[in-house]
Amino acid sequence: MKNRMIVISLFAGLLVLLVAGGYTLLKGGSNTPAIGSPAPDFTLNSQDRQPVTLSALRGQWVVLYFYPKDFTSGCTVEAHNFQRDLSEYQKRNAVVLGVSVQDEATHKRFCAKEGLNFKLLADRENEVSKAYGSLINLGIARLSSRHTFLIDSDGVIRNIWLDVNVRKHSEEILRALDEFQMTKGAKP
């Protein structure tokens, strides 16, 4: 009886560890760059097959958002809200860049179908998603986690969102942009 209780206790503990580890795996974020650190530079092709280099955007704020997959409900809602608020980002000297592991052609179809006018970047080699701690490895497939990085005009990470509500996220980022840009020394 005592041995059975020990086995059950060990099994329960292992189950808790597996659930917690699975949650972390699905959410990603274990190796994200730190707030206040330089944003890892990259060059990726956009939906129009043109390269976009993060460091070339210095002088502007960058909303770098990672998302799992084009044409899915959550990703579509999130993209629509960024598109809806695009003029507000432009007023704040900010550019929106979406990143997923899908290819340029898929991004192009998604942008055309959903009326998106900002850049979606193809991280086909998973390197950028990995550098930002935003890669989910499902064994047979890899996806980008739903994470967002707010990068200032000097290329420094100012905020990170690892738990995103797609319906409210764009407004949340706009509020954060306003707060950062109003602080002394922040460059709009």
Structure description:
The protein is of the alpha+beta class and 188 residues long. The chain has one domain (31-182): Glutaredoxin. It has helices at residues 2-27, 73-84, 86-91, 104-114, 127-131, 169-182, and strands at 43-46, 51-53, 61-66, 94-100, 119-122, 135-137, 142-144, 147-151, 157-161. The strands form two sheets. It has a seven-stranded mixed beta sheet with strand order 2-1-5-4-3-8-9. Strand 6 (135-137) and strand 7 form a beta hairpin. The longest helix is centred in the N-terminal third of the chain and has 26 residues, at 2-27. The chain starts with a helix and ends in a 6-residue tail after the last helix. The relative contact order is 0.19.
Q: How many discrete domains?
A: 1
CATH superfamily membership: Glutaredoxin
Structural class: alpha+beta
Major sheet description: 7 strands, mixed
SS summary, helix count: 6
The CATH architecture name reads 3-Layer(aba) Sandwich
| Mean pLDDT over the residues | 87
Distance N to C terminus: 68 Å
Look at the structure and give the CATH class. Answer: Alpha Beta
List how many beta strands DSSP finds. Answer: 9
Layout of helices and strands:
Layout: H1 2-27, E1 43-46, E2 51-53, E3 61-66, H2 73-84, H3 86-91, E4 94-100, H4 104-114, E5 119-122, H5 127-131, E6 135-137, E7 142-144, E8 147-151, E9 157-161, H6 169-182
Parallel strand pairs: 3-4, 4-5
Antiparallel strand pairs: 1-2, 1-5, 3-8, 6-7, 8-9
